[in-house]
UniProtKB/TrEMBL annotation:
Protein's UniProt name: histidine kinase
Residues bearing the modification 4-aspartylphosphate: 731
Domain Histidine kinase: 437-660
SUPFAM superfamilies assigned to the protein according to its UniProt record, in alphabetical order: ATPase domain of HSP90 chaperone/DNA topoisomerase II/histidine kinase (SSF55874), CheY-like (SSF52172), Homodimeric domain of signal transducing histidine kinase (SSF47384), PYP-like sensor domain (PAS domain) (SSF55785)
Residue spans crossing the bilayer: 24-43, 55-77
Top-level taxonomy: Bacteria, Pseudomonadati, Pseudomonadota, Alphaproteobacteria, Hyphomicrobiales
Organism: Bradyrhizobium sacchari
Amino acid sequence: MGNSGDEDSKRSRAVAPAAAKQDLGGIGVAVAPAMIGALLSRVFNWSRSGVGPRLLAAVLLFSSIVTLMLTTLQLYLDYEREVGLIETRLDEIGRSTTGSLGESLWNLDQNQLRLQLDGILRLPDIRAAEVREVADRPNPIRVAVGEPNTPSMVTRNYPLTTTVQGVVRTIGVLHVEATLSEVYQQLLHRALVILASQAAKTFLVSLFIIYVFHLLVTRHLVAIADFVSKYSLARPPPPLRLERSPPSDPDELDKVIVAFNAMCANLECAYGELREANATLERDLKIRRSAEEDARASEQRFRDYAETASDWFWETGPDHRFTYISERAGGFGMDHRALIGKRRIDAAFDHDAEPEKWRAHLATLDRREPFRKFEYRGRDASGRIRHFSVNGQPVFGTDGHFMGYRGSATDLTAQHETEERLRQSQKMDAIGQLTGGVAHDFNNVLTVITGTIELIQEGLADRPQFAAIAQLIDDAATRGAEITSQLLTFARRQPLEPREIDVNALVLETAKLLKPSLGEHVEIVTRLADDAWSAMADPSQLSSAIVNLAVNARDAMPGGGRLTLETANRELDGTEGAGEGDVVRGAFVMIAVSDTGHGIPADIRERVFEPFFTTKGVGRGTGLGLSMVYGFARQTGGAVAIESEEGRGTVVRLFLPRSKGEAPAKTAPVQAPATARGHETILVVEDDPLVQGYVIAQLGSLGYRTLAAGDGAAALALVDQGAKFDLLFTDIIMPGGMNGHELAEAVRLRRPGVRVLYTSGYTDDTIVHEGHLDAGVALLSKPYRKSELSQKIREVLRGEPPA
């Protein structure tokens, strides 16, 4: 039983410390939220205002933590002491009461048990006591006093024994409960007293520390901060001095002030040097900025020149390959990017045709000499041949090594084309003047021949063999007249009689005439625009032009083919035309003649409109067909364009100006004029004796009386002498300084209303302007036949307007 009591006592002591620590933790949890939380919150909020409050907060926080730790330690020691007293009291109860309680329980004296338990209950801190009988019988004795199971208690169980026949027997258990509530209450009061006293002491000490810190440090820091905030290097204030009693030995603040004033002095010195350096730097920057602006302006100026100049600029490396070509080259169809990395000779077109020129140029480059106006031909991005002129200057580095060439290039294509067109125009004009002069003299001769043949044919009507010979001569004269007419048409000296014509009707009529001429092996196809405009042109000359083009097309298709006649309306913008001056704009009627022949080689395509130029064999053509077409188109105010591809055929397009009228004249079949006779007097002015004799003879055979003069002066002399005549029949081109038109004007001044008929084998700008006869002018072109002469004279004498 004694061992049992000791084990119970140990178990009860083991439970007490755990309960005590749990209850002590409860005290900390109860105190901390109420005091520490509020204190920390206020301290942290206040500590944001400056160094002093933060110092105070730190002191308070540290003091509170130390106070709490010491208080907790003190309370724990007091708790251990109080619990030890209670345990000692419980041990005393176990030693002094278990014997008497055992006897009372053995005697089953419950009253005595209760009295003894009440005595135990009156002891300090005892809350409950109980005796339980240990017996194997129903309803064992159980006596309890006090309030059992109260919180925070220490319990003990003591065995109750008795000796029966020398044997100790356990007959019951004494259970005692002691409360710790009074202990806790005393500890709480003690903790409050300690915390309050410590908090007051800590706060007072902290305030004192803050005051001393402010007096010794903080206010001086504020003075230093104010001095620093107002410090200006431009206007430095006097050295900093603190308002305080200097200590016997310099302290930290004195050292800070000394160091700070030294730093300010160094700053002032450095600031002065910095201002000088800034001034120098600013001057240097201005100079550099000015230089950069000059360089930028120079570069921009160069770029502006490079991109707006008529030339373009280039650079090459030591290997003479292009490293730079200005974008201006693109304005001339050149792809400047594609030329980078190439040499000039690589892009040239004529290096094989002119090897000597290129060898000399490459030798100049190898000698690293400047060059000027080196001309060569090349192709642009579209493949068109262009003419270039380049200037170059060698570039050397500062150490003298060769770096390449730099220079400019000029596109001379337009100049070369203009010069070529000018040469062509001059050549064509010279040929025109030559052919006009030849035609004039030749027409005079043909006039006599034609008229004479007519007289011979009349006299040989009964001699067929000689009449056939006369007919051959007449045919040859007619052929000669056609050739001179073609020459004059090319030279734009053929007087035209333009009028509004229905182009479609004329093309259809001409197509009918072409079928027997072209043969069965050539298919004629017409594609006529339903809305084709009427054109202003000479219908006979237009028919001749179409026939000439059709004959050329037939000769290009010796094995047969298809000839297409096409009409359409066109608005030209000046890009069409085959020669110099062919820039036409406006509304035109197009007549296209195309074939499926062998085409025109590219190397002769530009010469096809030259007179007497032909690819046919000797005796197979005069070379005047296309020349006549070209002259007719230009004299009419239109243009002609040709397109050809070898093996595919040729297309020639005539552009005739659109007429302004609404009702185009219908082409009527030409009827042979009848010979008309008369009896009037005609003044014949002709410088060629043969032609003069022929005209006088013809007019005499027609019944007319004639007066003759060899030039304008002789004719005026007859007029001034009072010679009577009804018609002035005068040549236009005459020697003596007076042409036919001037003669007619002089005669009209003397005899107003006189009728005038002009004749000429070659008309200049006297009575023909822009291919049209002047208004009211009657002209009989040489050579002419007797019937044409008689018909024209009757028209003028009757006062009929010129056809």
